[in-house]
């Protein structure tokens, strides 16, 4: 072999120069970097899994059901108040003193969602549709006709199958007139000389709704407003003043299958009901 041929064999080819060495640092460094990366990914996945499994207490069944009330949707209550305020007749009702969110209990123990306004001269009870943003019915009760306010727990006849927890409030405006027999047994009768309220189910959702649904504060505001109107605009033949009594709120209903089903399914409220709707 000549000296030139020996130099050719000793010199590395271009392919050998470009081929990485299997024992060089380039092979070991990437492997060393991937190990902590995989460990961090595993730790991050475990952390995400643990965070996903941690269910807060607010997502209980009761809280989930409360969120189905349309009155809790953002902006809904404010829009309802604006709509109801527009229905106030300044000449007849005067200025608005306060607005309340209540549940009316009729003579068959049916619950119905209501917005209630106390003004200078009137007690306004509004049946408001929180889905369509419209007032479907407005009942106006002159405050100078209000003669009695009773508050306490609910009571039913001895043979009644119904019961109701919580406290109620009943406003009377004609103590001399008693409901007729036909009205008592007519579930759609509206000629009763009184109206009954109880707490709205969303009263404990926040401090704002707790204030709007406070029956005791409502009772005091109503009594004070009615007393002022009795002095300023007395009704001939009626005793001036408002009598406040702490006594059971009697509901003369016995079986009440319709009220049981209706109250359990919140049929008297603007309430989301899945695919059926409101």
UniProtKB/TrEMBL annotation:
Domain HSac2: 71-243
Region (Disordered): 1-54
PROSITE patterns: HSAC2
Regions annotated as coiled coil: none
GO cellular component: cytoplasm
InterPro entries per record: hSac2 (IPR034753), Inositol_phosphatase (IPR022158), TPRG1-like (IPR040242)
Top-level division of the source organism's lineage: Eukaryota
Family membership: Belongs to the TPRG1 family.
Protein name stated in the entry: Tumor protein p63 regulated 1
